[in-house]
Amino acid sequence: MKKLLIKDFRLAMHPTVILFWLLSAMLIIPNYPYYVVLFYSSLSLFFVCLSGRENHDIEFSAALPVRKGDVVRARLCFAAIVQLVQLILAVPFAALRQALPLPGNLVGMDANVAFFGFSLLLLGLFNLFFFTSYYRAPEKVGKTFAVSSVLFFAAIAILEVTAHAVPFVRNRLDTPDPQFLPEKLIVLAIGAAAYAILTLISCRISVRRFEALNL
Question: How crowded is the C-beta side of 151, counted as CA atoms within 13 Å?
Answer without folding.
Answer: 17
